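In response to reviewer comment 3 from the previous cycle, which asked for concrete evidence that the modeling workflow produces usable outputs, we include below a single protein chain processed end to end. The sequence was submitted unchanged, and the resulting structure tokens are shown without manual editing.
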Amino acid sequence: MNKQRFVWEKITLELKNSIPIAYEKRSKFNIYWIRLAGDNGWGEGAISSYGGNTDKELIACWANAAWSPVHFPVSIHQVQGWIGEGGPAPARCALELALLDRIGRDEGKPLYQILDLPEPGTLSTSYTISLDTPQKMAEIARNEKAYPILKVKLGGEDDEDCIAAIREVRPDAKIRADVNAAWDLPKAIKMVRKLSVYNLELIEQPLGRDQITEMGILQSTTSIPIVADESVQNLGDVHALGLAGVAGINLKLMKTGGILPALEMIQIARDYNMRIMLGCGIETSLGVTAMAHLIGLAEWIDLDSPLLIKNDPFIGLKYDRHLKIKLSNQPGIGIQLRT
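The workflow returned the following structure tokens.
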């Protein structure tokens, strides 16, 4: 009789502050922790706010794979074949991370080394300022004066006032605006023109998920990089965004289905001279540390989720006072359970 190859556990993450964005406000998020038999490989699956997946779908995918008679992969080239193409992206991601973690542990090498990637540098992540009144957002920006990069959520009625208030108290900061698909094209053209005086580093997902052509049109009106997030879910989206002339993409493991698909997307994006952001949803240090192994391939880093949650059960990547990320040289993903 086959033995169960892995187990999964639901964990409810509590945010330090509720996060209002253009389409919802939440203070709790659920993730799943995958543990391979023998506890020698860990992964994480988290449903994004806009992914359209359900817990039931993730669990069905894992329940099917958990009794596979096929031996676990012993090399990275076997991983995607073991997982298969079925199931939601977060479910496949969790399995992939656990299998890669296992291979890294067995070889005694950190993830970036088994993937033959550049050693991660010490780039600073952005720090997220959630949508609120201009005064409250500016107060957060002032209080976090050691953080050099601020990701500012927009999509309300006072978007320009929010950016102006933050820029006034933080003239030194790099500001990235994240609109979470809240504008239409006419409003976006108008807002980009207004916001151009505030020296923004980039504008993320200003338009709806399916408005790829329109984002290309918007990009043609400004030198500020337009970066797709919700609009990039698969390889076809990267091609479409590149052909449209969009400047960059924000990759998140729970969208791509794991690190290996993300690496394919990065290669295609480079063919279009697109720039790369590494991002995350609300995830623990497990998923975020896994993504941090790709830092050597990216220009922009948005990996601050562990800073936003109260009850991260894992210890992984470290942040210095300026939010520069440092990985340990532990094998695999490099994660420990917090005690």
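The chain has a mean pLDDT of 95. We consider this sufficient to address the reviewer's concern, and the full set will be provided in the supplementary archive.
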